Amino acid sequence: MASTEDPVNIPEDGEDIDAKDIIEETDDEVESLETSPAPDTTAAKGKGKMKAGLIVAKKITKKTRSFVWDHYTRLKNNHNKCCCNYCGKKMSCASSSGTSNLRKHILACKKYLAWKATTSASQHVLNEEADGLHLGKVSESFLREAANEMLVIDELPLSFIDSLAFRHFCNKCKLQKPHSRRTATRDIVDMYVRRKTLMKKILGGKKQRLSLTTDIWVAHNIGASYMVITAHFVDTNWQLKKLIIGFKNVGDHKSVTIAAVLKECLEKWDIKKVFCITVDNATANRNAMEIFKADFIEVNGEESVVLNGDYLHVRCATHIINLIVRNGLQEVDKSVAAIRNGIQFVRSSAPRLKSFHLRVDIGKITRGSLARDCKTKWNSTFLMLNRVMDFKMAFDKMMAEDKPYNDYFQERVYGKKRHGPLAKDDWEVIDRFINFLVIFYQSTLVLSATNSSCSYKCYNEIVSIQSAFIAMTCQGHDEELKKKATAMMTKLGKYWDPFGEGTEMNRMVIVASVFDPRNKMKFAQLCFDQLYGKDSFKAKQMHDSIMSILKKLFDEYNTRLSSSLN
């Protein structure tokens, strides 16, 4: 039956019937439309017919909508055009043309195929009006690789992959079920082999010239010694890279053993060109470098090193600073021990800490934490001493008012009385020594950079340290400070004196500062004038020596480049 309650106009020729004008009775019933009386004209062909002054619409059977409309969106300003939800391509979609062109495009659309490969029927649409944005499902192989890399980068235990926390994370993020620790072990070994093969091609195939650092440390819990070798190089994108190429167990610390392990490691990686090797200041390392240089040149030729290997051995600057500071800490060991004991007393219980904070508040001192140092890291000792100076008044009040604090230092440990409490002389010694430590601490921060090159900064820090000590010895009024500065200068000269008889500083460190375009040779000349006096014999000698090294480097590289091109 036709309905006359909601009449609609019959469309003219060439127009489509709007879906909004069709009233759905049931899924199986026929839909009909009825309109108001129309003029005495012939109705559009195929659209309807005249009957009793009424235009009755032709029976329309509801058709299933094509699947392609799940992947296209009609343009608002042009109903006959649509846009692919994946690649954004605009297509014609007039009703009279059908959807064959849309179907062909979507089945060949690369972005649609990529989305289809990472989604599943169980995943739902985030927003039906968000241009086809769907939840993507991470593949099992991708999750497995990413999890293995996470274990390696963050040095996590292999058991983490089986932990409840990681499995809960994967489940909540709707990821694949993670693999086991045994599978992770095999995958990490395979990943190491693949990446090692790739790096061998990069380092050996391109004949890359590298700089090396190596050191030996002892695992005290098992008593075994390990030698670590790290390669440093600049890649084709001018980015500084470092790579651990050796982690070897060694039986002793002899020079012959060090040279043999180093040579074996370079042969394994097919490395045939080395610029310099940085080691600490042990005598065995100095002898090992001489043995290694002779063997390496004999096997790989003179082109394997630069300038006949005269500047191959570089002494670690931070290790030199560490030796000098530790020597100085021995002179104030009792005062430092008294500070450690005072901090240990304050932090040993909550009532003692509360009592200390009460005196901090009375003295109107800014609150802060009192951290103990690590005895093997002198920079942590500096931070401890520098921080405790802010609480000098609070410690003085505790010594004057707190009986348990004074009794604590009367106790004996291993038959010896504890050092402390801190007296006036101890505070003066620590305050004076901090003036030295801050110089070394700032230089250590600069020279310990790992993500950027710092070789060109090394000589600048050496000059800064020496200049600070010269100023203390010449301009200061504190006689004790002058004595300590003079002693420090003597220790520095043992390692960083370019004219030293026993241990001469590697002058390639100065050449590196000249290569900095902000410094060039003018900076080096200013440093020579400041350290040795303007127009002095030593300043001129250093200037001529550096210029000679620069010319030799240029001639050697120019000759090798010309021969390789020919």
TrEMBL record:
The keyword Secreted does not apply. InterPro entries: hAT-like_transposase_RNase-H, RNaseH-like_sf, Znf_BED, ZnF_BED_domain_contain, Znf_C2H2_sf. This is BED-type domain-containing protein. The keyword DNA-binding applies. Keywords: DNA-binding, Metal-binding, Transcription, Transcription regulation, Zinc, Zinc-finger. Residues 63-131 form the BED-type domain. GO terms for molecular function: DNA binding; zinc ion binding. Residues 1-20, 27-46 are annotated as: Disordered.
